């Protein structure tokens, strides 16, 4: 009996500690991110994923999961620490997913189809870059996480691309080897364990919609229209969409420091649900990238 009491007490202490840490980090996120209230962050019910950044910061996740989920979607914000709006919108979408779960059962409304989806959010993949003063695109070791994924021929191609196409831009340094960074390793592991049917990666500030991988891409989300900017070595779109065959929707918000208006964020969410209901249930067909079609040089999101 005493041992049961001791275990229960220990669990209670751990839960209280986690709640306290979550409240503290939400205070910091609310101070850092545009248009994010601390209560919004706390409502996200962030979970410690047992992953740490280079500087030891927790990489938090949030799951919104119905009992009968038939689709898994992984949403990533803040891969680049200075794209503050991307992390803020990921938090806002957590709230929309929670609302869909509560109100969407038994409806055919495409905007509420999120109620059949297991959403996993990583709102700030690069907390070291986000909390740097000033915020930085790269992580604490100066690596662009969106160049650090193990695409084919990474060792050769990533260095050539960095030197020839970016002019050795330090903001786009791919690192010394693929998955050299703990943040990239965590996301890579999530792709393997969670096995998403779709990945949504939120960035800024190009103001376009990008897509890599199988199936027909969405033509628009809100006011963002499809403009497939091509692929490059080590990117998530290249690795996930082209190499692994997981559709990757990349949202490029028009401003890195400000989130879109509330109505626009809701419209993007609604358009994504509609596209998912039409396309994710269909047989996947080979996607077509600008690189394969010999298109113009890609942007560097």
Q: Can you describe this structure?
A:
The chain is an alpha/beta fold. It has a single domain (2-279), classed as Zn peptidases (Aminopeptidase). The chain has helices at 2-32, 38-43, 84-103, 127-131, 154-165, 182-194, 236-243, 262-279; strands at residues 47-52, 58-64, 71-76, 117-122, 198-203, 208-212, 220-221, 224-225, 248-252. A 7-stranded mixed sheet has the order 1-2-4-3-5-9-6, sandwiched between helices. A two-stranded antiparallel ribbon has the order 7-8. Strand 1 (47-52) and strand 2 form a beta hairpin. The longest helix has 31 residues, at 2-32. The model is unreliable at 7-17 and 282-299 (pLDDT under 50).
Please describe the topology of this protein.
Layout: H1 2-32, H2 38-43, E1 47-52, E2 58-64, E3 71-76, H3 84-103, E4 117-122, H4 127-131, H5 154-165, H6 182-194, E5 198-203, E6 208-212, E7 220-221, E8 224-225, H7 236-243, E9 248-252, H8 262-279
Parallel strand pairs: 3-4, 3-5, 5-9
Antiparallel strand pairs: 1-2, 2-4, 6-9, 7-8
